[in-house]
Amino acid sequence: MGRNTYITTTLPYVNAEPHIGFALEIVQADIYARYREALGDRVFFNTGTDEHGTKIYGKAQEAGEAPQVYTDRYAARFQSLKEMLGLHPALHFIRTTDEHHKRAAQELWRRCEAKGDIYKKKYKGLYCVGDEMFLRESDLVEGKCPNHPNMQPQEIEEENYFFRLSAYQEALTTYLSKEGAIMPTWRREEALRFVERGLEDVSISREKERLPWGVAVPGDESQVMYVWFDALTNYISTLGWPDDAEGNFAAFWREGDVLQVAGKDQVRFQSILWQAMLMSGGVKNSDRIIYHGFITSGGQKMSKSLGNVISPLEIVNEYGIDALRCFLARHVHPFEDSDVTLERFKEAYNADLANGLGNLAARIMQLAQTHLSGPVDEPVGSTVFPEEYAMMIETFQFNHACEYVWEKIAQVDHAIATEKPFSIVKTDPEKGRKMIAECVEELRLIARMLQPILPQTSEKILMSISANAKPENLFPRK
User: 167-203: per-residue pLDDT in tens?
Assistant: First the structure.
């Protein structure tokens, strides 16, 4: 019997087109969601868009549009990722401009305030619009935000509400000391070091006069919520918190396994601020947060000015959905930065898919169609994943899981070349048919292991096995 599994990505800002970096994050989450579902879990899979804050308001003004019109347009583009990347059909999509989300954010505010963790004071500091956060002196690198060195921090002085993050230093240390709270381990150690250096209270509102685009602070119409306090609440508002009319919050957050996927620059927001907010609001903490690295191109961070931004849509249009998913799973490291170029992508496509998987599936099913009288029956117990493969998926080592599958592809291909069932079936038909049937069983196992990673291709191979027919060319050479 399966468990209840909740998995969520972060919510990207709707200030630019979807890029390959976010495609990596959501494909990673989708692979795990599909894997857990294949094991019999009930899965709630969440993504969405973050639509408030200074950055969005400024972009809308630049475009000469009302913020809601601007965010509606970009949110639709992120919603299109579901089809573009072949994501799970039951994927939930939340927008921080949804009314039920705003009410949830305000309720969490009230609970933190009732706990005594929200207070108002005047503050002056440097603000990074790129990260939507105030910077400490220790954060600065040559006077700039390390994540946005091309942006000049703004000096802002105003009266805001603050969250007593400093009150949760001990509780966060205990939470972060648990093995598995963060993967990879070095990110957990990074979070612990940050907490141990001492936590400062966090500004969690902005003056509405300066920033009219945000969720209203309960009881104070002159202020709107800091975009992070608002946006982080999506992880529970998408489940129907606090009313929980459908029981999803109880089933998937309170009683289920909660897994979040985020980029490496999110550690202090996801594993420190968000966890303290949950503690203050009396809500269970996230069970695990997985942090992936960045995608670079030609050794440099992707940027429009350098002209090295890679669009996932362009790759999908040229090579297909599963080709992109395969590359992100096999050739992008799950935790460290990885360099991606279109040349490298094309080489991997031809080696892995056109000459590898596609060629093997065609070869085996052509033999089966020619020499077997009907489909090869699925053996009892074949729905169980190999232990080594399962361990790799559970620990988000999708690159190693893919290597395991492609080693199996190479082994089967080698066995066909050396044992020659295509020749033996002519001289000893019974032995040859048995060998071909064994090849079909191996192909079925390969297709099953690929189901979370390459769902469309897996389905095509399994259907061809059921029909005992060679599939159409799965991956034409490019």
Answer: 999 999 999 999 999 999 999 999 999 999 999 999 9
Amino acid at 109: W
Q: Do 101 and 236 reside in the same domain of the chain?
A: yes
C-alpha angle 321-323-328 in degrees, rounded to nearest 5? 100
Question: How far is residue 288's CA from residue 466's CA, in Å, rounded to a whole number?
Answer: 39
Pairing mode, strands 220-225 and 205-207: antiparallel
Q: What is the pTM of this model?
A: 0.92
Domain membership flag for residue 324: no
Nearest to 182 by CA among 248, 113, 239, 259: 259
302/476 Cα distance (integer angstroms)? 29
Residue 111 lies in a domain: yes
CATH number at residue 211: 3.40.50.620
Q: b/e per residue, 110-129, with b = 16+ CB within 10 A?
A: ebbbeeebbeeeeeebbbbb
Instruction: Please count the residues of the chain.
Output: 478
Same domain, 97 and 27: yes
Do 96 and 231 touch, CB atoms closer than 8 A?
yes
> What range defines the domain where residue 417 resides?
341-467
